[in-house]
């Protein structure tokens, strides 16, 4: 039996023809329902809404004007889901990031931040402490820190520049870092 004949029979009240039409478009309904989220509706509810849309489409389809029922019914199903979404979006509670989920947690908490504010604050605090600690260092120690950490020059070149033994430069650097660590603890 052709689809148009099934539609005509279903319009006259033939339940078997209506069931066959619903059965043939249910895979599309299921696929569309899986892609749709509406607060308070589960997949079975959405499938049922889609099947009701099929019944309405059968009853409203004019076979004399068009023979493209598939396009008509798929649009009707999509429109029914869009209408449901539109009706439920009007509720502010479903759209607020401060709304709570089933566990009682707000949605805003679940959104990952691109920056970690706590980590940034800790880094700023550490920089301030380091700056204060560096200000307390004698000029010669500060020169060594600048040479090695800020100018990225080697300790070997520092030892040559100062005319000291390389081992002395290593020990001096170690002592300076120990003083910095102690000033961090204060």
From TrEMBL:
Write one Pfam family the protein is assigned to.
Answer: HTH_16
**Gene3D superfamilies per record:** 1.20.120.1810, Winged helix-like DNA-binding domain superfamily/Winged helix DNA-binding domain
Matching InterPro entries: HTH_dom_conjug_TS-like, RNA_pol_sigma-70_dom, RNA_pol_sigma_r2, RNA_pol_sigma_r3/r4-like, WH-like_DNA-bd_sf
Helix-turn-helix conjugative transposon-like domain sequence ranges: 7-62
Q: Does the keyword Cell cycle apply?
A: no
Give UniProt keywords alphabetically. DNA-binding, Sigma factor, Transcription, Transcription regulation
Is the Transcription regulation keyword given for this protein? yes
Q: Where are the transmembrane segments?
A: none
NCBIfam families linked to this entry: sigma70-ECF
Name of the protein in question: Sigma-70 family RNA polymerase sigma factor
């Amino acid at each position: 039996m052709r689809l148009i004949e099934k539609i005509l029979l279903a319009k006259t009240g033939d339940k078997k023809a209506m069931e066959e039409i619903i059965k043939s478009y249910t895979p599309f309904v299921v696929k569309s329902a899986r892609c749709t989220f509406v607060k308070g509706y589960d997949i079975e509810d959405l499938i049922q809404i889609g099947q009701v849309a099929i019944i309405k489409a059968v009853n409203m389809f004019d076979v004399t004007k068009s023979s493209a029922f598939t396009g008509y019914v798929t649009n009707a199903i999509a429109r029914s889901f869009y209408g449901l979404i539109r009706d439920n979006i009007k509720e502010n509670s479903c759209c607020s990031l401060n709304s709570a989920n089933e566990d009682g947690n707000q949605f805003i908490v679940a959104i990952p931040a691109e920056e970690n504010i706590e980590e940034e604050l800790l880094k700023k605090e550490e920089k301030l402490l380091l700056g204060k600690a560096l200000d307390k260092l004698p000029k010669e120690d500060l020169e060594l820190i600048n040479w090695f950490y800020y100018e990225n020059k080697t300790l070997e070149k520092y030892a040559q520049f100062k005319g000291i033994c390389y081992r002395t430069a290593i020990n001096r650097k170690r002592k300076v870092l120990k003083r910095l660590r102690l000033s961090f603890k204060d």
